Structure formats: C-alpha cells, structure tokens
C-alpha cells in the first residue's frame, strides 16, 4: 500500500512538472556606441507587483547571459553595471526559450554629458547650449540680433560682431543651412525673432572631422537658428522707409525691404537696402573676403595641406583704401537666397548679391617720423571719390549618392567695377619747422576685377568606423585690368629753398592674373579603439602674371604714348608644391589630441620678361602641428593648438618694379625674397555654468616668424623722400593674453562682465640700412553691465580703457597714450505702445607731446516710436548726433612713426520713418 502511494505521488509530481514547464532567457549585453561586449553586468528578473528579486546572473566576456528555469509570467528585466546606466524593460514569458538579442547599454559618462542642466529656458546637451527663444522677450517685430542680446553668454557689440562664451561667432545657420553665404550678420539682421523656436550655440567641427569622426581640434563657434514649424509654411517680411524732413537737396534717407518665404525644406529670402546714412549692409571689407584685392594675394598652406589666399601688404593697384565708418556713402544692396533639399539626398544653396556704393571723404593726416636725430613732420589732406559696383554669386550642390558616398560641388564668382578719383595735398617739415618737400597729386582709377573659383569634394565611408577616403579638387582665378592716370607736382627743398621740381603726367595700364589648381587626397584608418591615423597628399600649381606699363604724356601728339621703361615691367611666376602629411589622432570622451606633420616641397620659377632674367629656387619645409582638447566638465574645455605654416611672397613684392604713385613714398619689389615660416601656439580655456549664469574664459597666443618679410626703408632726411623694399628678417614675435569673467548678480537682477587684455610685439625694422627693432605694448580693460525688465526698461552700460606704449631702437623716446570709451544705452517703455530709446558715447583720447589737440567728443542719439494694429505698423522719429560732435579720428603707432588721421563723418540729422512688418495673412492672425 505504501509503495503504491509513493508511486502515485512521484507520478503526480512528474505530471505537474510537465504542465509547469520552465523556460530560458538569453541575450547579449553590448556598449551602445562601440558595439563591444560588456562583461560582468548583472542581469536580474524582478516580480512586477512588489519588485522582489526572482533570479539574476552576470554576463560573460562575450557579453552573453542565460537565465534558466524561469516560470511563465510577467517580469521586469533590469541590468546593472558600475560604468553603464541601468537598462529596464518589461517582458512576458510564455514559451520554452526567449531570445532578447542585443541589449545596448549607454555609458554613464555620456549620459552625464547629455544631462539637462536646466529644464526651462536653457538646456545643455553635450557641447550644445540651447535657448528657448519664446522665454526671452523682445520688442514686437524685433530681428534675431535683438534676441541674441538677451541671451546669457552671448554679446553683440555696436558693430554687429557676435561673441558666444567669449569666442567670436563665425557662422550663423538657419535650420542647419548657410543663409546668404557665410556672413553671420545677414541672418541675425534679416530674420524676425518671433520666427525662431530655438537658438543653438555649439563648436562646429571641420568638414573633415565631421566626415571621418576624428576630431582634429579645428572648430568654429556657430549659432543655429531653428525655426518654428508654422514659420516654415508661410512668409514674413518688412518694409521700412525713413527720410529727413524739412531739407532741400541733400537729405538723409533709408529704404529697406526684406522678405522670407518658407515651405518645408525650401527657403527663399530676399532683401533690398538703399540709403545714404551708412546703414548696415555689405561693406567694402567684404571684398577682401572674396579676393577682390588681387594684387597682393599671398598663398598660405595650413598643416593639413589646404591652400588659402590672404590679402597682405600695401595696395599698389591704385584703388584708394576705404573705411566705411568714415566719409559719406550711398548704398544699394540687394540679395537673394534659395535653399532646398530633396529626399534628404540632394541639397542646393544659391545666393546672388549685388552691391553699389558711391563714396566721398575728406581726410587729414599728421605724422611724425624719427630718423636718427631728425624728426620729419608731415601734413597731408586727401579728397576721395569712389563709385564701385559688385556682383557675387555663391552656389553649393551637395549629393548623397548612397549611404557611404557623397559629392559636393561649389562655385563662387565675384565681379567688381571701380571708378575713383583721389586728390592729395601735402608737405613735410623738419623739427625746426623748415620745409622739406611739397606735393600736389591727382590719381584717377578705372578698374575691373574678377574672382572665380570652383571645387568638388568626394567622400567615401568604409564599413569600418573611422575608415574614410576623400578627394578634393579646386580651381581659382583672380584678375585685374586697370587704367590709371597720375598727375602730380613734387617739390624738394634744401634748407627751406626750392631745389628741384618734378612734374608727373602718366597713364598706368595694369594687367594682373593669378591662378591656382590643386588636388588633395585624404585617407583615415583606425588603428585602435581611440587611435586613428590620417594620411594626406596635395599638389598645388600656382601661376601669375603682372604686366605694368607706364606711358608719359606727349605734348607733340597730345597722347600718352611714350613708354617709361624704368616704370614698366612684365613679370611671371610659377609655384609648384607637393605636400604629404601624416597625423596621429586620439579621441575619447573628454580628451582629444592629435600630432603630425606635413612636408612641403616647393619650387619657384620667376621670370622677368622685360629684363630677360629668370630666378629659380626650391625649398623643403617641415610643417609640424599638434592639437589638444580637454572637456573637464559640461560646457567647459581647454584647448591647446600649435601650427607651423609658410607664407609665400606676393607678386608685387617679388616684381622688381618701382611704384611712383606717391613720389615721396615709393616702393620697389625684390625678386630675391624667400618665403617666411611662422610658429604659432594658442591656449584657450572657457567654462560656462548655466545654473549660476557665470562664465570664465581666457586665451594666450604667441607667434614667432623666421624670414619675416618687412619693408626696409631708405629715408633722405633732407628731402624726406622714402624708398621701401621688401626684405627677409629674423627676430619678429608677438603675444597676447585675454581674460573674461561674467556673472549674474541675482539680488540686483544685473548682468556684469569684466574683460582685461594684454598684448606685446617686437618687430625688426630697417632704416637707412641700419637694423633695429620696434616694441609695442597694448593693455586694456572692458566692463559691461546690463539690466532689463520686460516692457519697462532696458539699460546697458559699458566702459573700455586702453593704454598704448611704443618704443624703437632709433631713439630713446617712448611714445605712449591712452584712450577711453564710455557707452550708455537705455530704452524706456510707457503707455504700452510707446518706447523711447537713447544711446550715449563719451570718447576720450589722451593728449600727448606730439598731439596737443583735445580729442574728447560725445555722441548722443535718440529714437521715439509708437506701434499700431497689434504691432504690425510702427511710426518713429529719430535724431543722430544730437550734440553735433561726431568726428572720425584714429591714432596709430608703427615702427618709428606715430600718426593721427581725421576723416569726415555724418553729423547731426533727424529722420521720420514708418515700418510695416507683415507675415502670413498680413499679420492679422494671432
């Protein structure tokens, strides 16, 4: 009986076991980024009702785990590892075996970097700081520039330059795309603030780093404006007109039209600016960015083998130097921007722009030059008239061929047409007041310039991360055709008595062309988890010609037909450069560094066709480079960068041709010039705490140049005639340091920023075949305070103090002076629709032994406005320079010369204006 009962019991338990079948759970734990196995991670099952541990195990060296004998039912699956964030999921067991596959775990360091510091108006995710635009109130119809002024950590100065966390913003994107080329001001001035959903600030990596995934330490401080979704499906714009009342002929006026239309990924924007108040637009400085000044283009090569062009030295093609802050100018600026993206594979960006400027200016210059025991005092006045037109076109077409291949085509054109007249009167005296020389000169210019460039970039990514290949090709051409007339009367005196008189009446015809053709290949290979090697090779072929013909006027024929052989020359140059490069890079969560070098093999072939003389030489250069960055906490980093680079002499510096445009200040080229080499090191540190709204940044830069190209001057102390010639020298260096500290004083609701700076330089000089040196010291301190309350007031107060000290080995005298600028900007709101804004500037320049004039002046402007119809319309009255003290004075110290220049400025005027800001439905919908 007992045996029977036992057998029945065993049979029953076996039957229960069959009906209560237990299952197995398996899977693999991996790193989410590196895709590598995670060893020794706890994998646990919890009961969902009370979260009691049911079973657990650990992953093996392959990241695999198995949980056996798991009953059917619902469970909570959770992983735990000291280096990774917990993974939690709900699973249901109702089968014999459950395979979960791969479970990716995210690093705790990565999550800490991406943690939301402040969940309200400002967020930090990784290296990106995001501002929710709607939380920062600005005036109705304000542009993005006004919005940026409200954001902590961002400053916009009076000239429109933008700084974020202490660094200059170099790019402003709209939904990740360029807006009107690479000019940051175009987006922030032309887009409405209420169209922006979010403002993102980040360090944009180089295109090569974004492609390879290998940080090369090269970044650009960038702002990306993310538009609101509803603004991507409509249009908005502005029409603004203002005019000076109660005047006759020469009244002040401004007319601005701006329009933007968005439909999905298609963006279309246009603007037209027309006025004579010097209003913001594309300035003369923009011409240098696109190679308009082609006469002194220097080819530079960076440590990656990239070729760039830079305008250097004096302007010898006859065009007057222009600073649009001075004089009187009439602007007509127009532009169109079209961007579209199809299927996330094809992207087109086209931006044509037109600019016409009519400029007039009267300037006077006083300079003092020390030559041994003699001091030369020059007084000069110049009248300038310029009429210039410019057309630019930028186009980029980017195609993703497939998931691993892409190609980008780019093209850029720039055409200039310039007519100018310059009239100069000047004289030079000794320190005893005795006349040395006297000059009257007119110079008329008619020139056409063009800058053309095209390029392509092919990129391929292999299956293995960080293994990439790219091919880059580019072509550029810069050319100038000029026809100039020079008429001058030049008198030289000895002991105050007229000794010689030279009259010049010449026609100067110039034909300049320089071209560059280059191709480069780049390959990157991962050699370890965080190490990569990059190989690059580039070949560049540069050619240039400069034909300068000078003709004297013939009384017999009444034409300019007598060739002046001493002032005429035909010159050609050819540079060929081979540039292999290798770099080792290390990339981790917090630390990135790279070290490498390029080798440059350059051959020069210079041909003086006029003298039938050829100059040939070759150089081998070593281009070391190193980058280091350390992100020690969120939004805080340290960067160290070292680079060695060469600079080739310019065509004007090499051509043995005398420039006699200024009879008493002539230059002559030197075909024996060598290329210079510069060592440069930068150290920058910055941190920003969003919780306390505190920022600290500092930077140190030091550079030294061997074979630096300077101008040796031979100065006749009797006639004050100077002949300058470029030569190579050693011993030039410069260094500068800056520091910034900004904080929010919460009790006063006040923002404060302090920024001291220091710079020092030593440059070699050569005067009358005697070598010496010039030393310059500049220190400064800036203080900025701001406070605002929505729809009540807005107050900004700043002060900038600067001290300059200069000394030369020519004499023992030290030249020093200081300047100070105090600025106050106030806006007051009242009666809801009214606003009164005013700004005041006090400029103080210290009197010196050399310059005894009182240079203190006050600039005071004011504007009163009222809005109508839900802020759609605005009427305003403004007055500029209320105290009528706007003077344009600039003081400079260079080697053994100190100078002070005063220019015309637009003085007191008033305007009445009206603005219509429209958007979808004419602005009637809220």
TrEMBL record:
Pfam family, one: OMP_b-brl_3
Keyword Signal: yes
Record has Zinc-finger as a keyword: no
Domain Outer membrane protein beta-barrel: 460-763
Annotated signal sequence range: 1-22
Entries under Gene3D superfamilies matching the protein: Carboxypeptidase-like, regulatory domain (2.60.40.1120)
Gene Ontology terms for molecular function: carbohydrate binding
Domain of life: Bacteria
Keyword terms: Signal
Name the UniProt record assigns to this protein: Outer membrane protein beta-barrel domain-containing protein
Species whose genome carries this gene: Flavobacterium seoulense
């Amino acid at each position: 009986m007992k045996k029977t009962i036992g057998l029945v019991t065993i049979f029953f338990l076996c039957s229960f076991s069959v009906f209560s079948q237990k299952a197995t759970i398996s899977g693999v734990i991996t790193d989410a980024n590196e895709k590598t196995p995670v060893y020794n991670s706890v994998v646990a099952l919890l009961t969902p009702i009370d979260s009691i541990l049911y079973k657990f195990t650990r992953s093996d060296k392959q990241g695999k785990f198995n949980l056996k004998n798991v009953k059917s039912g619902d469970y909570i699956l959770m992983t735990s590892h000291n280096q990774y964030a917990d993974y939690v999921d709900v699973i249901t067991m109702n089968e014999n075996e459950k395979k979960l596959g791969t479970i990716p775990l995210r690093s705790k360091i990565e999550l800490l970097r991406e943690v939301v510091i402040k969940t309200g108006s400002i967020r930090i995710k990784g290296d990106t700081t995001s501002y929710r635009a709607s939380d920062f109130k600005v005036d109705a119809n304000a542009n993005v520039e006004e919005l940026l002024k409200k954001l902590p950590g961002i400053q916009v100065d009076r000239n429109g330059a933008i700084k974020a966390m202490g660094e200059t913003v170099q790019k402003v994107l709209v939904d990740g795309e360029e807006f009107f080329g690479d000019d940051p001001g175009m987006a922030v001035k032309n887009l409405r603030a209420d169209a922006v959903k979010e403002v993102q600030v980040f360090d944009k990596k180089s295109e090569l780093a974004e492609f390879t995934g290998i940080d090369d330490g090269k970044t650009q401080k960038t702002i990306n404006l993310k538009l609101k979704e509803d603004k991507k499906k409509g249009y908005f714009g502005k029409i603004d007109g203002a005019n000076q009342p109660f005047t006759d002929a020469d009244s002040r006026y401004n007319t601005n039209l701006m329009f933007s239309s968005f439909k999905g990924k298609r963006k279309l924007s246009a603007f037209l600016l027309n006025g004579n108040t010097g209003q913001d637009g594309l300035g003369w400085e923009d011409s240098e960015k696109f190679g308009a000044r082609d006469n002194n283009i220097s080819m530079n090569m960076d440590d990656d083998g990239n070729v760039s062009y830079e305008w250097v030295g004096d302007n010898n093609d006859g065009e007057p130097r222009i600073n649009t802050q001075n004089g009187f100018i009439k602007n007509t600026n127009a532009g169109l921007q079209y961007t579209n993206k199809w299927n996330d594979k094809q992207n087109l960006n086209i931006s044509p722009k037109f600019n016409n400027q009519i400029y007039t200016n009267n300037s006077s210059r006083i300079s003092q030059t020390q030559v041994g025991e003699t001091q030369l005092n020059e007084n000069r006045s110049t009248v300038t008239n310029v009429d210039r037109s410019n057309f630019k076109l930028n186009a980029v077409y980017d195609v993703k061929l497939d998931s691993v291949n892409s190609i980008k085509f780019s093209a850029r054109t720039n055409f200039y047409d310039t007519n100018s007249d310059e009239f100069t009167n000047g004289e030079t005296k000794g320190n005893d007041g005795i006349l040395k020389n006297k000059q009257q000169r007119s110079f008329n210019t008619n020139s056409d310039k063009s800058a053309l460039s095209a390029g392509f970039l092919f990129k391929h990514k292999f299956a293995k991360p960080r293994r990439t290949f790219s091919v880059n090709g580019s072509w550029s051409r810069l050319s100038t055709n000029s026809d100039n007339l020079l008429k001058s009367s030049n008198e030289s005196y000895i002991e105050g008595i007229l000794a010689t008189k030279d009259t010049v009446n010449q026609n100067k015809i110039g034909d300049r062309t320089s071209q560059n053709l280059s191709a480069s290949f780049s390959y990157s290979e991962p050699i370890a988890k965080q190490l990569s090697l990059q190989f690059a090779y580039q070949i560049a072929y540069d050619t240039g010609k400069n034909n300068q013909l000078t003709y004297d006027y013939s009384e017999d024929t009444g034409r300019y037909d007598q060739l002046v052989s001493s002032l005429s020359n035909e010159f050609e140059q050819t540079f060929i450069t081979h540039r292999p490069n290798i770099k080792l890079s290390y990339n981790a969560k917090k630390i990135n560094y790279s070290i490498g070098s390029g080798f440059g093999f350059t051959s020069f072939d210079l041909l003086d066709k006029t003298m039938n003389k050829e100059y040939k030489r070759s150089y081998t250069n070593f281009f070391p480079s190193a980058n280091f960055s350390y992100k020690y906490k969120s939004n805080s980093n340290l960067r160290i960068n070292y680079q060695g680079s060469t600079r080739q002499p310019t065509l004007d510096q090499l051509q043995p041709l005398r420039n006699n445009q200024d009879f008493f200040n002539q230059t002559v080229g030197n075909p024996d010039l060598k290329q210079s080499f510069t060592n440069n090191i930068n150290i920058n540190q910055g941190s920003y705490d969003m919780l306390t709204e505190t920022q600290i940044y500092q930077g140190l830069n030091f550079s030294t140049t061997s074979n630096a190209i300077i101008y040796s001057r031979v100065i006749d102390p009797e006639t004050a005639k100077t002949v300058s010639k470029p030569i190579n020298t050693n011993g030039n260096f410069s260094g500068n340091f800056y520091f910034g500290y900004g904080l929010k004083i919460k009790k006063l609701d006040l923002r404060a920023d302090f920024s001291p700076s220091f710079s020092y330089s030593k440059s070699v000089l050569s005067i009358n075949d005697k070598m010496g040196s010039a030393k310059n010291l500049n220190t400064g301190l800036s203080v900025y305070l701001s406070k605002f309350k929505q729809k009540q007031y807005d107050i900004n107060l700043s002060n900038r103090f600067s001290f300059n000290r200069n000394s030369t080995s020519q004499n023992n005298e030290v030249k020093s002076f200081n300047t100070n600028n105090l600025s106050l900007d106030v806006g007051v709101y009242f009666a809801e629709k009214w606003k009164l804004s005013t700004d005041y500037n006090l400029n103080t320049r210290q009197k010196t032994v050399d310059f005894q004039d009182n240079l203190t002046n006050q600039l005071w402007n004011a504007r009163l406005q009222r809005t109508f119809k839900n802020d759609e319309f605005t009427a305003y009255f403004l007055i500029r320079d209320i105290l009528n003290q706007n003077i344009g004075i600039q003081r400079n110290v260079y080697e053994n010369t100190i100078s002070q220049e005063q220019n015309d400025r637009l003085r007191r005027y008033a305007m009445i204006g009206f603005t219509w800001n429209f958007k979808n439905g004419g602005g009637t919908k809220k």
